[in-house]
Write a structure and sequence with these properties.
The protein is mainly alpha-helical. Helix content is about 70%, strand content about 5%. The longest helix has 30 residues.
């Protein structure tokens, strides 16, 4: 009896867990999903806030983890189409992960040397990897192609090339855009936190407005999306963008570019002089408003552009993902997050938003960073540095600046 009692204690869940399960099971499916989705949304926001607090390096590693998980979820669907021949193929899965590593080396190898320049120039191995980065990237990719060709098997060519193409399209969608997320981050955490938060706000408000007021279907690919949710989320995201950009503009931690000026990669420089983007200025208003002008940060106006994109265009990343899932008869990309699905289900809009943010920064925001110019100068040899010095000296002398 005692043995049975102990086994029973282990098998039976705690009373609080039983009560929670019973409470959820007693709800209508609509409300049960509401509470589960809401709870894990708060969990995800808490994790994001924690990683954001830890700093840029944690955010970069987090972006890499998300990228790998998204790649795994999408490539898993490709594997399922060729499951019957996978057993007879050497390196069938390994090659796909190899191309992921090679792609990351190529893309991040272009970016990281400019960020961790002070660290890299004092390490001979890292200096070698940076100096011959393009050659090594080419050799890595060529080795992958050669290996793929050598593993081709008769009667399976179509399936192997299907998975090969599937892998490369996935790399284009996931790796290239996650690389842009990291690039945005080092322009200033504002350009990472703001776009991501706008997509989250739009998604949450679309769900809330659609849940309570939704009546009119928005798009056939995603029947649960409604015009009421879409428009309600648009208005909410505009207000949220205007307010959040104002709050973030108060802190150097968000508006300063992220720079690593010393040998310590764990501590970034997050101090700078305010650029015009984060300096308040007066904007004239029409007489109908009753006041002559209003004082705003220019970034608040830029945030409205990001909000429009997050509300009107970024959701099409989600609609495309919905169509993709319907094509393969799956509900979600994964089941890691209860009420949400997989990681890719949460980032289908984020990647499109990150790409637009990068293009927007390059087109309308980015200014020349003197520190990056200095890093390029220091990477030159002595003769090149002297040549640059003389050209700058002559240039400034002709304008009577020295």
């Amino acid at each position: 009896m005692a043995t049975r009692s102990r086994r029973s204690d282990k098998e039976d869940p705690p009373i609080s867990q039983q009560q929670s399960t019973m409470a959820l099971s007693a709800m209508a499916p609509k409300w049960r999903n509401w509470w589960i989705r809401g709870f894990f949304t708060l969990v995800l926001l808490a994790v994001f806030a924690l990683v954001l607090y830890i700093g840029p390096l944690a955010l970069m590693l987090g972006a890499l983890v998300v990228q790998v998980k998204c790649f795994q979820e999408i490539i898993k669907i490709g594997f399922s189409m060729s499951r019957e021949i996978e057993i007879n193929m050497p390196l069938f899965r390994t090659l796909n992960w190899y191309f992921l590593v090679a792609s990351n080396y190529f893309l991040f190898g272009e970016l990281l040397p400019h960020i961790f320049f002070a660290v890299i120039r004092h390490d001979s191995l890292l200096t070698f990897l940076v100096h011959y980065h393009k050659l090594i990237s080419f050799l890595l990719y060529t080795a992958g192609i050669v290996t793929f060709v050598l593993t081709l098997q008769k009667d399976h060519y179509r399936a192997q090339f299907t998975v090969f193409g599937w892998t490369h399209v996935t790399l284009l969608i996931i790796v290239s855009q996650s690389h842009l997320i990291v690039q945005n981050m080092f322009e200033g955490l504002m350009w990472f936190a703001l776009p991501l938060s706008l997509v989250v706000c739009n998604d949450c408000m679309a769900y809330i407005f659609g849940f309570f007021f939704g009546r009119t279907s928005l798009i056939k690919l995603s029947p649960k999306k409604t015009w009421e949710g879409f428009l309600g989320a648009f208005g909410s995201t505009l207000v949220f963008a205007f307010l959040l950009s104002y709050v973030l503009s108060q802190y150097e931690y968000f508006f300063c570019p992220v720079e690593y000026r010393g040998n310590d990669i764990w501590h970034a420089s997050m101090s700078c002089k305010r650029s015009h983007m984060f300096t308040q200025r007066d904007y004239a208003l029409p007489a109908i408003f009753g006041v002559e002008s209003i004082s705003l940060y220019p970034v608040q106006l830029h945030s409205l552009v990001l909000a429009v994109f997050a509300s009107w265009i970024a959701p099409f990343g989600g609609f495309m993902a919905s169509g993709f899932k319907r094509a393969f008869h799956i509900k979600d990309f994964g089941d890691l997050i209860p009420g949400h699905g997989g990681i890719m289900d949460r980032f289908d809009c984020q990647y499109l938003m990150a790409t637009f943010t990068y293009v927007y920064i390059v087109s309308f925001v980015r200014a020349v960073n003197p520190n990056k110019v200095l890093q390029l100068f220091l990477s030159m040899n002595n003769d090149e540095q002297i040549s640059v010095y003389r050209q700058i000296h002559d240039f400034l002398g002709e304008r009577n600046m020295i």
